Fold each of these.
Amino acid sequence: MPDSTFFTTMPPRTVSAIAAELGAEVIRGGEVIVSAVAPLSGKDGGAIAFMGDRKFLDALKTTSAACVIVHPSMVEHAPETAAVIASRQPQADWARTSMMLHAPRRLERSIPVSEAAEDDSVVVEPGVVIGEGARIGRGSHIGANTVIGPGVQIGRDCAIGSNASLYFCLLGDRVKLYSGVRIGEAGFGAVVSRDGPLDIPQLGRVIIQDNVTIGANSCVDRGAFDDTVIGENTKIDNLVMIGHNCIIGRNNLMAANTGISGSVTTGDHVIFGGKAGIGDHINIGEGARVAAGAGVLADVPAGETWSGYPARPLRQFLRETVWLSKQVAQRKGTKEPQA
């Protein structure tokens, strides 16, 4: 279930009512009541899930969801305990269902500083907007024109720069966010539908642990369903992008222009050079290093340094670079002289 601090859950609906609005077919369980959306692996027995790819077949067979949306060819694999909706676009219809059942809380009014601040030690510069239910810990400083969304929690002794925006997030103590930082915006997720690309609702949060620093104009997207997490004491440079559902370990270092795609997991003490790019669903082991400009498309083992595009172990990259240089030099040396 999405966090009620940040998302409003609509009244439950029957499977038949949902299918009718989607224009999909109820196979069984039309009377079942659904109150939330969840992934197949979720434990919410009153939720609706979907399977969009055969690689999740085992998860479908063992899901505890009250209802599943599946392609007609997959109906026979759905568990007998679940209601079933048949759809030729299961992920798109799950996204539409999500919008029927959940809505992000909007910043409809600003509350006074006294209502949000833990005590008088909180400093709020001119132009700051604070949403209902937000809290700011003792000794924190909020820069001019920053927006703090409904329900956002800011720990003690934090420093938030000017023109930042914080939504759907929880911050620990001594967090530093420089000017222009964007925390908790919707992650990039779209699915092809009969009406064209459809945004997939992002129902997770951002958790920023103690002593994290995030540089100017960097972005950290909230999770699609689970949370995006930045581990304690991680230091992030300017103009860095961290996608939804990422789990960043403790004591990571990220130089400017690094881009982390969705659902990436890093261990502790990982270092990223400038303009490093990481593909989605990649695991980077503890103590690994990614060189500047590297494009990582495979898991990086703990303790290794990878470079190049596509990135590979540093020694391999250097050997291949030297070999290629020699080949080019030899070809140049064997060319016949021009007349």
Amino acid sequence: MKKCFLIILITLIACTTAIGQNMFSGSTDLEVIANEWESITLKNVPNGSLVTMLDCFNKKWPTWMLSSAVKTMKKGVEGRDTYNNDQIVVRNKPKNGFVQVDWWGDAERKEFMRACYWKRSNGHRLLGIYFGGTDKYPNIHFVCFYDYDMKRHTLTPEPQIIDGFRTTEDRKFYYDLPEEGKELQISEFGERGHFIHTFKWDGMKPVFSETVKIEEDNGGEHYGEEEE
């Protein structure tokens, strides 16, 4: 009985590993995307729906995360979790213009993606795609912001939106794209402590509003302006 159990366990582990390897095969390293996205405008984007914009991005930089998101979104799955092989979790909220993807199959490799868009007052759309991972590049976290032009059918990078809130050796930033509402929040961790930076939507972009310092006793110290 014990021998049979071990054989089954080994088989399950082998299958999980194979699924993970196949899934990651051909997926663009996150470091490559982080280094390239700011300088490349994506063209021939038919419309400003979230699935179409993500599909266009994925054709330039293929990842298992965006492939999973686009596949699920095209099926029209709404408002619930979708499990593929019990490893990939895709949560699609089309009415809110939000989708997220997580991988739970390997403790040594954690990658995720969050994406949303805002409707701009000039008729354009602002797309945000947040990538994070702890595989080859520990704690790599970054957001790709694009302006979608309905007339030109282009996605133009807008990296300046996150100026001053990018991860360095001393300060780590984690981005909370809005699943509900329009506010963007960024968590900061570093020698100065733990801070929550809130950005409110002004019709064109998230604009810095306030910073709250999170104390160890779960209290909070409020700051009216961001400290540099």
Amino acid sequence: MTYPKKIYFASDMHLGNRYIDEPLVAEKRLVAWLDGIKNDAQAVYFLGDVFDYWYEYKYVVPRGYVRFLGKIAELSDMGVEIHIFIGNHDIWMFDYLPSEIGAIIHREPLEVDLLGKRFFLGHGDEVGYRPISYRLMQSIFRSRFCQFLYSSVHPRWTFAFAHRWSLSSRKKGLLPERLKASQSRHLESLESFAKTYLESHPDVSFFMFGHLHIIVDQPLSPTSRLIITGDWMYHYSYFVWDGETMELYTN
């Protein structure tokens, strides 16, 4: 059965990043894509790292992204569900996007039925391979007390620090030998997680993640697939589910 509306999946826009040549052009390209799908979309699922850095103070939100925020607000006002999974770069989303735009924020992986099939959705850093150092860092970032301490520092300093850290981390992570090894290790761990999960949840048809900045669509069983959605920095990729077929597109 083909449904009148479609479900869209994308991830890893890293809006506001400092390590591609024309970030504003990339944002406009994303906005143009959203404008093109607004009339046939039932929901859009952003599977993490929409922003390269995002931290909401009580009365301060990050500067920029007005084109993107305005467009997803428009889609939300039209009745399109906007789902945003926190990633490892934009973990500090609180109430701004839900209250101002109507976005639904997911802080943990989600298992959900979409147009007749069962999906397991997440950013990709919550399951599978997670070194102790990474899990420790996540626990610190998620700590309400640590967030309180961080919020006491003026945004002028926290935002500058975060952007420098992100740039340094990305430059190291993009070294070819490190990037390939990291992607391979994480992909293997996600595949292992999904296969193990299927043993007790055989009704899941699609495991979908972002995080790795690669495009993957591979079978796990005769009825289940593992999908990594790529990114909107280099691939400009997204997947579309219409109730019958799951298709990869690049914009």
Amino acid sequence: MKTDIILSGVGGQGILSIAAVIGEAALKEGLYMKQSEVHGMSQRGGDVQSNLRLSDRPVASDLIPLGQASLIISLEPMESLRYLPYLREDGWLVTNTQPFVNIPNYPEMEKIMDELLRLPRRVLLNVEAVAREAGSPRTANIVMLGASAPFLGIEYGKIVEGVRSIFGRKGEDVVELNLKALKAGYDAAQIRQL
């Protein structure tokens, strides 16, 4: 078993929290893991990207080569396009459909969506809307994690344990809110999966 994951988005969207939960779940699953992160100008809404490599065998490098990612998880649609060259032919893209417009020359959403719709294996989801329905727009990143869960190669129960572990220090209400968001994302992705 080997799953190479690229997480992408912009600063403040919770990319690193997703990485932490996946990492915790992978360890609970007994997998080996390597991770690298690029923060850039994340404090100012810049690009944030993380490589996660999960395997049932030791992992030598933390960087994913071009054309080798099993999964791209993106909280920002333009950022998902940036990393498409890393996606395997049989890989999946799970991305938010709502842009975080942080540059003056942000491309037209219609053009971005045209590119994304060309992919044969994709889940496109308005995670902010699902998060609001689940109880809090602040849980959009965990909605995205739930939508990605079927492609991680990790038992769903281990992801639940990862959420409990990462958010546990914030109290049971926060844990339950995030678990509700995780399930909402998981359910929404099942409907939108191609």
